[in-house]
Amino acid sequence: MSDQPAPLGSLLRAAPPDRLPEVAAEHLRRHYAADTVEVLVPDLTFTRLHPLLGPGDLPDAAALRCFGSQRPGTERANGGPVRLHLPLSCWGERVGVLRLELPERPGGDLGDRLTADADELATALRAASAATDRYRRAQRRARLTMAAELQWDLLPGRSLGDERFLIAGQLEPAYDVRGDHFDWALDGDRLTVTVLNGCGDGMEAALLTSLAVNAMRNARRCGADIVEQAELASDAVHSRYGGAVHTATLLLEIDLVGGGVAAVDAGSPHCLIARGGGTEKVPLEEQLPLGMFGEAHYEIQRFRLEPGDRMLVVSDGVHSATPGGLARYGASALFSAVRRTRLQPATEAVGTVMRGLRDYHAGAEPEDDAVTVCLDWRR
What we know:
The structure is a single chain. This protein is of the alpha+beta class. It has two domains: about 130 residues, 2-Layer Sandwich (Beta-Lactamase), CATH 3.30.450; about 230 residues, PPM-type phosphatase domain (Phosphatase 2c, domain 1). The protein is about 35% helix and about 25% strand. The protein contains eleven helices and 16 strands. It has a six-stranded antiparallel sheet with strand order 6-7-16-15-12-13. It has a five-stranded antiparallel sheet with strand order 2-1-5-4-3. It has a five-stranded antiparallel sheet with strand order 8-9-10-11-14. A hairpin with a 2-residue loop joins β12 and β13. α1 runs parallel beside α4. It starts with 7 loop residues before the first helix and ends with a strand. The mean pLDDT is about 95.
Protein backbone atom coordinates (compact mmCIF):
# COMPACT_ATOMS: atom_id res chain seq x y z
CA MET A 1 0.00 0.00 0.00
CA SER A 2 1.28 3.42 -0.90
CA ASP A 3 -0.73 5.30 1.68
CA GLN A 4 -3.75 4.96 3.93
CA PRO A 5 -6.89 4.44 1.81
CA ALA A 6 -9.45 7.21 1.64
CA PRO A 7 -13.05 6.02 2.13
CA LEU A 8 -14.23 4.70 -1.23
CA GLY A 9 -17.84 5.53 -0.41
CA SER A 10 -17.15 9.26 -0.25
CA LEU A 11 -15.29 9.11 -3.58
CA LEU A 12 -18.17 7.31 -5.25
CA ARG A 13 -20.76 9.74 -3.91
CA ALA A 14 -18.74 12.64 -5.35
CA ALA A 15 -18.30 10.97 -8.75
CA PRO A 16 -20.59 11.23 -11.80
CA PRO A 17 -23.00 8.27 -11.78
CA ASP A 18 -21.62 6.86 -15.03
CA ARG A 19 -17.97 6.88 -13.81
CA LEU A 20 -18.21 4.71 -10.70
CA PRO A 21 -16.19 1.76 -12.08
CA GLU A 22 -13.30 4.04 -13.05
CA VAL A 23 -13.26 5.74 -9.64
CA ALA A 24 -13.30 2.38 -7.85
CA ALA A 25 -10.55 0.98 -10.09
CA GLU A 26 -8.28 3.97 -9.49
CA HIS A 27 -8.83 3.66 -5.73
CA LEU A 28 -7.95 -0.05 -5.78
CA ARG A 29 -4.85 0.44 -7.92
CA ARG A 30 -3.56 3.30 -5.79
CA HIS A 31 -4.15 1.93 -2.32
CA TYR A 32 -3.98 -1.85 -2.76
CA ALA A 33 -1.42 -2.19 -5.58
CA ALA A 34 -4.07 -3.91 -7.67
CA ASP A 35 -2.91 -4.63 -11.18
CA THR A 36 -5.97 -5.63 -13.22
CA VAL A 37 -9.36 -4.36 -12.00
CA GLU A 38 -12.69 -5.22 -13.62
CA VAL A 39 -16.32 -4.66 -12.69
CA LEU A 40 -18.63 -7.33 -14.11
CA VAL A 41 -22.42 -7.02 -14.34
CA PRO A 42 -24.90 -9.79 -15.23
CA ASP A 43 -26.96 -9.89 -18.39
CA LEU A 44 -30.74 -9.95 -18.09
CA THR A 45 -30.80 -13.75 -17.97
CA PHE A 46 -28.17 -13.93 -15.20
CA THR A 47 -26.19 -16.45 -17.27
CA ARG A 48 -23.27 -14.23 -18.34
CA LEU A 49 -21.21 -11.40 -16.87
CA HIS A 50 -20.22 -8.36 -18.91
CA PRO A 51 -17.19 -6.12 -18.19
CA LEU A 52 -17.66 -2.40 -17.64
CA LEU A 53 -13.99 -1.41 -17.90
CA GLY A 54 -12.33 -3.70 -20.41
CA PRO A 55 -13.29 -4.76 -23.94
CA GLY A 56 -14.81 -8.06 -24.90
CA ASP A 57 -16.80 -10.61 -22.95
CA LEU A 58 -14.32 -13.28 -21.87
CA PRO A 59 -15.68 -16.39 -20.11
CA ASP A 60 -14.82 -16.36 -16.41
CA ALA A 61 -16.07 -19.43 -14.59
CA ALA A 62 -14.63 -18.20 -11.26
CA ALA A 63 -16.55 -14.93 -11.55
CA LEU A 64 -19.77 -16.79 -12.31
CA ARG A 65 -19.21 -19.04 -9.28
CA CYS A 66 -18.71 -15.96 -7.12
CA PHE A 67 -21.86 -14.37 -8.53
CA GLY A 68 -23.90 -17.50 -7.92
CA SER A 69 -22.60 -18.36 -4.46
CA GLN A 70 -22.16 -14.75 -3.27
CA ARG A 71 -18.86 -15.81 -1.69
CA PRO A 72 -15.39 -14.37 -2.41
CA GLY A 73 -12.99 -16.51 -4.38
CA THR A 74 -9.23 -16.43 -4.90
CA GLU A 75 -6.96 -18.25 -7.34
CA ARG A 76 -3.27 -18.14 -8.16
CA ALA A 77 -1.64 -19.76 -11.18
CA ASN A 78 2.09 -20.48 -11.65
CA GLY A 79 3.26 -18.17 -8.88
CA GLY A 80 1.69 -15.11 -10.52
CA PRO A 81 -0.59 -12.51 -8.97
CA VAL A 82 -3.59 -13.56 -6.93
CA ARG A 83 -6.90 -13.10 -8.74
CA LEU A 84 -9.68 -12.16 -6.34
CA HIS A 85 -13.42 -12.16 -7.04
CA LEU A 86 -15.71 -10.27 -4.66
CA PRO A 87 -19.51 -10.32 -4.89
CA LEU A 88 -21.20 -6.96 -5.43
CA SER A 89 -24.54 -7.08 -3.63
CA CYS A 90 -26.87 -4.57 -2.01
CA TRP A 91 -29.81 -5.49 0.26
CA GLY A 92 -29.80 -8.99 -1.21
CA GLU A 93 -29.71 -7.73 -4.82
CA ARG A 94 -26.87 -9.29 -6.84
CA VAL A 95 -25.33 -6.34 -8.67
CA GLY A 96 -22.24 -8.04 -10.12
CA VAL A 97 -18.68 -9.12 -9.33
CA LEU A 98 -15.50 -7.14 -8.64
CA ARG A 99 -12.43 -8.87 -10.11
CA LEU A 100 -8.91 -7.71 -9.27
CA GLU A 101 -5.36 -9.02 -9.23
CA LEU A 102 -3.15 -8.45 -6.17
CA PRO A 103 0.50 -9.24 -5.45
CA GLU A 104 -0.46 -11.41 -2.48
CA ARG A 105 -3.51 -13.14 -1.08
CA PRO A 106 -5.43 -10.61 1.07
CA GLY A 107 -6.13 -11.42 4.67
CA GLY A 108 -7.10 -9.87 7.96
CA ASP A 109 -7.62 -6.13 7.85
CA LEU A 110 -6.86 -5.90 4.13
CA GLY A 111 -9.49 -8.47 3.27
CA ASP A 112 -12.06 -6.68 5.44
CA ARG A 113 -11.34 -3.35 3.75
CA LEU A 114 -11.66 -4.85 0.28
CA THR A 115 -14.99 -6.43 1.24
CA ALA A 116 -16.20 -3.07 2.58
CA ASP A 117 -15.12 -1.36 -0.64
CA ALA A 118 -17.03 -3.94 -2.69
CA ASP A 119 -20.14 -3.24 -0.61
CA GLU A 120 -19.75 0.51 -1.17
CA LEU A 121 -19.39 -0.01 -4.92
CA ALA A 122 -22.44 -2.28 -5.08
CA THR A 123 -24.63 0.24 -3.25
CA ALA A 124 -23.41 3.07 -5.48
CA LEU A 125 -24.03 1.09 -8.69
CA ARG A 126 -27.53 0.17 -7.52
CA ALA A 127 -28.38 3.81 -6.83
CA ALA A 128 -26.70 5.15 -9.99
CA SER A 129 -28.65 2.88 -12.34
CA ALA A 130 -31.55 5.36 -12.22
CA ALA A 131 -29.33 8.23 -13.38
CA THR A 132 -27.38 6.66 -16.26
CA ASP A 133 -28.01 4.06 -18.96
CA ARG A 134 -24.43 2.76 -18.91
CA TYR A 135 -24.97 -0.19 -16.60
CA ARG A 136 -28.30 -1.28 -18.08
CA ARG A 137 -26.86 -1.04 -21.59
CA ALA A 138 -24.02 -3.37 -20.58
CA GLN A 139 -26.55 -5.96 -19.42
CA ARG A 140 -28.23 -6.33 -22.82
CA ARG A 141 -27.19 -8.75 -25.53
CA ALA A 142 -29.98 -7.58 -27.85
CA ARG A 143 -32.53 -4.83 -28.13
CA LEU A 144 -35.60 -5.16 -25.92
CA THR A 145 -39.08 -4.82 -27.31
CA MET A 146 -40.92 -1.74 -26.07
CA ALA A 147 -43.17 -3.99 -23.97
CA ALA A 148 -40.13 -5.63 -22.36
CA GLU A 149 -38.61 -2.20 -21.65
CA LEU A 150 -41.74 -1.23 -19.72
CA GLN A 151 -41.75 -4.52 -17.82
CA TRP A 152 -38.10 -4.34 -16.74
CA ASP A 153 -38.45 -0.74 -15.58
CA LEU A 154 -41.48 -1.73 -13.52
CA LEU A 155 -39.71 -4.48 -11.57
CA PRO A 156 -38.60 -3.78 -7.96
CA GLY A 157 -35.28 -5.57 -8.52
CA ARG A 158 -34.24 -9.19 -8.94
CA SER A 159 -33.70 -10.15 -5.30
CA LEU A 160 -34.03 -8.80 -1.77
CA GLY A 161 -33.06 -10.15 1.61
CA ASP A 162 -31.61 -9.89 5.10
CA GLU A 163 -31.06 -12.28 8.01
CA ARG A 164 -34.80 -13.12 8.05
CA PHE A 165 -35.49 -13.98 4.41
CA LEU A 166 -34.26 -14.03 0.83
CA ILE A 167 -36.59 -13.50 -2.13
CA ALA A 168 -35.74 -13.63 -5.82
CA GLY A 169 -37.68 -13.38 -9.06
CA GLN A 170 -37.05 -14.22 -12.70
CA LEU A 171 -38.93 -13.02 -15.77
CA GLU A 172 -38.69 -14.70 -19.20
CA PRO A 173 -38.24 -14.43 -22.10
CA ALA A 174 -36.03 -11.51 -21.08
CA TYR A 175 -36.07 -9.58 -24.35
CA ASP A 176 -39.72 -10.05 -25.33
CA VAL A 177 -41.81 -10.28 -22.18
CA ARG A 178 -45.41 -9.16 -22.45
CA GLY A 179 -47.49 -8.88 -19.32
CA ASP A 180 -46.31 -11.19 -16.54
CA HIS A 181 -44.75 -9.39 -13.61
CA PHE A 182 -43.68 -9.60 -9.96
CA ASP A 183 -43.43 -6.95 -7.27
CA TRP A 184 -42.45 -6.79 -3.60
CA ALA A 185 -41.98 -4.28 -0.81
CA LEU A 186 -40.53 -4.61 2.69
CA ASP A 187 -42.03 -2.61 5.55
CA GLY A 188 -40.70 -3.57 8.98
CA ASP A 189 -41.63 -7.19 9.62
CA ARG A 190 -44.09 -7.28 6.72
CA LEU A 191 -43.17 -8.34 3.19
CA THR A 192 -45.76 -7.81 0.46
CA VAL A 193 -45.37 -9.90 -2.72
CA THR A 194 -47.49 -9.85 -5.89
CA VAL A 195 -47.28 -11.94 -9.05
CA LEU A 196 -49.37 -11.08 -12.12
CA ASN A 197 -50.30 -13.05 -15.21
CA GLY A 198 -50.48 -10.52 -18.03
CA CYS A 199 -53.44 -10.56 -20.41
CA GLY A 200 -52.84 -10.13 -24.13
CA ASP A 201 -49.69 -9.39 -26.11
CA GLY A 202 -47.14 -6.67 -26.69
CA MET A 203 -47.59 -3.11 -25.55
CA GLU A 204 -51.25 -3.52 -24.59
CA ALA A 205 -50.35 -6.27 -22.14
CA ALA A 206 -47.48 -4.22 -20.71
CA LEU A 207 -49.68 -1.15 -20.27
CA LEU A 208 -52.38 -3.21 -18.54
CA THR A 209 -49.81 -4.65 -16.14
CA SER A 210 -48.34 -1.20 -15.50
CA LEU A 211 -51.78 0.14 -14.57
CA ALA A 212 -52.52 -2.75 -12.20
CA VAL A 213 -49.10 -2.70 -10.52
CA ASN A 214 -49.10 1.06 -9.97
CA ALA A 215 -52.65 0.95 -8.60
CA MET A 216 -51.59 -1.68 -6.05
CA ARG A 217 -48.49 0.33 -5.17
CA ASN A 218 -50.58 3.45 -4.74
CA ALA A 219 -52.84 1.67 -2.26
CA ARG A 220 -49.94 -0.04 -0.48
CA ARG A 221 -48.03 3.22 -0.04
CA CYS A 222 -51.09 4.73 1.62
CA GLY A 223 -51.08 1.91 4.19
CA ALA A 224 -53.79 -0.24 2.58
CA ASP A 225 -53.84 -4.00 3.14
CA ILE A 226 -53.81 -6.51 0.27
CA VAL A 227 -57.62 -6.57 0.03
CA GLU A 228 -57.72 -2.83 -0.56
CA GLN A 229 -54.78 -3.11 -2.95
CA ALA A 230 -56.61 -5.73 -5.01
CA GLU A 231 -59.87 -3.77 -5.01
CA LEU A 232 -58.27 -0.48 -6.05
CA ALA A 233 -56.34 -2.18 -8.83
CA SER A 234 -59.45 -4.02 -10.00
CA ASP A 235 -61.45 -0.77 -10.09
CA ALA A 236 -58.66 0.99 -11.99
CA VAL A 237 -58.43 -1.74 -14.62
CA HIS A 238 -62.21 -2.01 -15.02
CA SER A 239 -62.57 1.77 -15.26
CA ARG A 240 -60.03 1.84 -18.10
CA TYR A 241 -61.04 -1.30 -20.01
CA GLY A 242 -64.68 -1.87 -19.02
CA GLY A 243 -64.16 -5.56 -18.31
CA ALA A 244 -62.81 -6.33 -21.78
CA VAL A 245 -59.44 -7.37 -20.30
CA HIS A 246 -58.30 -8.30 -16.82
CA THR A 247 -55.20 -9.53 -14.99
CA ALA A 248 -54.92 -12.60 -12.79
CA THR A 249 -52.95 -11.76 -9.66
CA LEU A 250 -51.81 -13.37 -6.44
CA LEU A 251 -51.18 -10.95 -3.56
CA LEU A 252 -49.33 -12.15 -0.45
CA GLU A 253 -48.53 -10.41 2.82
CA ILE A 254 -45.93 -12.29 4.88
CA ASP A 255 -45.25 -11.84 8.58
CA LEU A 256 -41.48 -12.27 8.78
CA VAL A 257 -41.61 -12.84 12.54
CA GLY A 258 -44.37 -15.43 12.94
CA GLY A 259 -44.54 -16.85 9.40
CA GLY A 260 -48.23 -16.13 8.88
CA VAL A 261 -49.24 -15.41 5.27
CA ALA A 262 -52.35 -13.53 4.17
CA ALA A 263 -53.31 -14.17 0.54
CA VAL A 264 -55.71 -12.74 -2.01
CA ASP A 265 -55.92 -15.17 -4.93
CA ALA A 266 -57.33 -13.16 -7.82
CA GLY A 267 -56.62 -15.60 -10.61
CA SER A 268 -54.08 -18.10 -11.85
CA PRO A 269 -50.59 -17.73 -10.30
CA HIS A 270 -49.89 -20.83 -8.19
CA CYS A 271 -48.16 -20.91 -4.80
CA LEU A 272 -46.03 -23.88 -3.74
CA ILE A 273 -44.35 -24.71 -0.43
CA ALA A 274 -41.19 -26.85 -0.30
CA ARG A 275 -40.85 -28.26 3.20
CA GLY A 276 -38.48 -31.01 4.23
CA GLY A 277 -38.26 -33.37 1.27
CA GLY A 278 -41.65 -32.59 -0.24
CA THR A 279 -43.38 -29.86 -2.23
CA GLU A 280 -47.10 -29.11 -2.19
CA LYS A 281 -49.37 -26.58 -3.84
CA VAL A 282 -51.03 -24.24 -1.36
CA PRO A 283 -54.80 -24.80 -1.63
CA LEU A 284 -56.24 -21.35 -2.30
CA GLU A 285 -59.69 -20.59 -3.66
CA GLU A 286 -59.48 -18.47 -6.81
CA GLN A 287 -61.43 -15.23 -6.82
CA LEU A 288 -62.15 -12.92 -9.76
CA PRO A 289 -59.18 -11.60 -11.76
CA LEU A 290 -58.54 -7.88 -11.31
CA GLY A 291 -60.70 -5.75 -13.61
CA MET A 292 -63.23 -8.37 -14.67
CA PHE A 293 -66.14 -6.60 -12.94
CA GLY A 294 -66.64 -3.20 -11.37
CA GLU A 295 -66.54 -2.84 -7.59
CA ALA A 296 -65.28 -6.39 -7.07
CA HIS A 297 -64.67 -7.47 -3.49
CA TYR A 298 -61.96 -9.82 -2.28
CA GLU A 299 -61.37 -11.93 0.80
CA ILE A 300 -58.18 -12.93 2.58
CA GLN A 301 -57.16 -16.56 2.92
CA ARG A 302 -54.40 -17.61 5.29
CA PHE A 303 -51.65 -20.18 5.58
CA ARG A 304 -48.40 -20.41 7.54
CA LEU A 305 -44.72 -20.82 6.80
CA GLU A 306 -42.43 -22.84 9.02
CA PRO A 307 -38.75 -21.98 9.63
CA GLY A 308 -36.66 -23.15 6.68
CA ASP A 309 -39.62 -23.23 4.27
CA ARG A 310 -39.21 -22.33 0.63
CA MET A 311 -42.22 -20.71 -1.04
CA LEU A 312 -42.50 -20.39 -4.82
CA VAL A 313 -45.05 -18.46 -6.86
CA VAL A 314 -45.26 -19.24 -10.57
CA SER A 315 -47.34 -17.65 -13.32
CA ASP A 316 -49.40 -19.70 -15.77
CA GLY A 317 -46.57 -19.48 -18.30
CA VAL A 318 -44.77 -21.85 -15.90
CA HIS A 319 -47.37 -24.13 -14.34
CA SER A 320 -49.68 -24.38 -17.39
CA ALA A 321 -47.04 -24.74 -20.13
CA THR A 322 -47.89 -27.69 -22.44
CA PRO A 323 -45.27 -27.61 -25.22
CA GLY A 324 -45.86 -30.09 -28.02
CA GLY A 325 -48.93 -31.52 -26.33
CA LEU A 326 -47.02 -32.65 -23.25
CA ALA A 327 -48.61 -32.72 -19.82
CA ARG A 328 -48.64 -29.41 -17.99
CA TYR A 329 -45.21 -28.45 -16.63
CA GLY A 330 -46.91 -27.91 -13.28
CA ALA A 331 -48.27 -31.46 -13.15
CA SER A 332 -44.97 -33.11 -12.17
CA ALA A 333 -41.95 -31.59 -13.97
CA LEU A 334 -42.21 -28.39 -11.93
CA PHE A 335 -42.05 -30.35 -8.68
CA SER A 336 -38.97 -32.21 -9.95
CA ALA A 337 -37.32 -28.87 -10.75
CA VAL A 338 -38.13 -27.57 -7.28
CA ARG A 339 -36.51 -30.65 -5.71
CA ARG A 340 -33.31 -29.87 -7.64
CA THR A 341 -33.12 -26.48 -5.93
CA ARG A 342 -32.88 -27.97 -2.43
CA LEU A 343 -29.26 -26.92 -1.85
CA GLN A 344 -29.45 -23.63 -3.77
CA PRO A 345 -30.27 -20.16 -2.43
CA ALA A 346 -33.45 -18.55 -3.73
CA THR A 347 -31.41 -16.43 -6.15
CA GLU A 348 -30.20 -19.60 -7.90
CA ALA A 349 -33.40 -21.61 -7.44
CA VAL A 350 -35.45 -19.35 -9.72
CA GLY A 351 -32.95 -19.96 -12.52
CA THR A 352 -33.10 -23.73 -11.99
CA VAL A 353 -36.89 -23.73 -12.29
CA MET A 354 -36.75 -21.61 -15.44
CA ARG A 355 -34.04 -23.80 -17.00
CA GLY A 356 -36.24 -26.79 -16.29
CA LEU A 357 -39.07 -25.03 -18.11
CA ARG A 358 -36.82 -24.28 -21.11
CA ASP A 359 -35.65 -27.89 -21.21
CA TYR A 360 -39.28 -29.01 -21.08
CA HIS A 361 -39.94 -27.03 -24.26
CA ALA A 362 -37.08 -28.93 -25.97
CA GLY A 363 -36.27 -26.02 -28.25
CA ALA A 364 -39.87 -25.09 -29.05
CA GLU A 365 -40.83 -21.44 -28.71
CA PRO A 366 -42.82 -20.79 -25.49
CA GLU A 367 -46.37 -19.61 -26.10
CA ASP A 368 -46.42 -17.38 -23.03
CA ASP A 369 -44.03 -15.36 -20.88
CA ALA A 370 -43.28 -16.69 -17.44
CA VAL A 371 -42.48 -15.58 -13.89
CA THR A 372 -41.03 -17.50 -10.97
CA VAL A 373 -40.62 -15.94 -7.51
CA CYS A 374 -38.87 -17.85 -4.71
CA LEU A 375 -38.88 -16.91 -1.01
CA ASP A 376 -36.75 -18.59 1.65
CA TRP A 377 -37.95 -17.86 5.18
CA ARG A 378 -34.94 -18.24 7.46
CA ARG A 379 -36.53 -17.83 10.86
